[in-house]
Amino acid sequence: MRIGLFGGTFDPVHYGHLRLAEEARETANLERVLFVPARVSPFRLHESRTAPAHRLQMLRLATADNDAFEVSAAEIQRGGVSYTVDTVLALRQQYPEAQLSLILGADALQGFLQWNCPEIIVQECCLLVGVRPSYDLEAILAGLPEAIRQRVQLVAMTPMDISASDIRLRVRTQRSIRYLTPPHVIEYIQQHRLYREP
Ligand code: ATP
User: Over the stretch 161-196, which tens digit does the pLDDT of each residue have?
Assistant: First the structure.
């Protein structure tokens, strides 16, 4: 079984995430893409974030129409700070024979050496990396040790200059977020009055 693990804050999920997941699925012929929202990212300890239940529900709405996509509450249920290495090792226990891939954007690859135990992560997974506008993938790759670089597989995705922070800003300033994230996610944001306060 080929499984892609896609972690993030997903506050909220948007078409940049969905396209990366879909193109990673196609590139690596993945049978399943597991979206795993972080309870608390180690890099965002002091930022306020939307309640995990909302982020989880928006992900469920956004991925419901894709049979290969699944949402996992593993990091949210585990509690505390969310480390990808823990999720990878738990998945490895659950699926000892699976071929695991970690899906990430160029910005995340840039900070990969600061993650907890990156060497264990690359022992267990290859890295499926999508381009992200304003990040120089070549330069990022050149800054990584060979052991990590050789585990990277590039995902030639359509570059999409969409970010969750931009969506939050647009909602706060009463601008449209149409075509940036699926309609069900927009409805959910409106119903629950998310992102109205800074
Ligand atoms: P924020 O704007 O709040 O920082 P974000 O849009 O970057 O959020 P995250 O949840 O932090 O979203 O990202 C999760 C993963 O998705 C990361 O690996 C990130 O690189 C990747 N990603 C996010 N947006 C895009 C995009 N537009 N194109 C490619 N990859 C993306």
Answer: 999 999 999 999 999 999 999 999 999 999 999 999
Greater confidence (196 vs 48) lies with 196
31 CA distance to ligand 1 middle (Å): 22
* Cβ(108) – ligand 1 distance below 6 Å: yes
Give Cα 4 distance to the centre of its chain: 11
Ligand 1 contact, 25 CB (< 6 A): no
| pLDDT score of 86 more than 90 | yes
At how many degrees (to 10) do helices 183-191 and 52-63 cross? 150
| Protein residue with its CA nearest to atom 22 in ligand 1 | 105
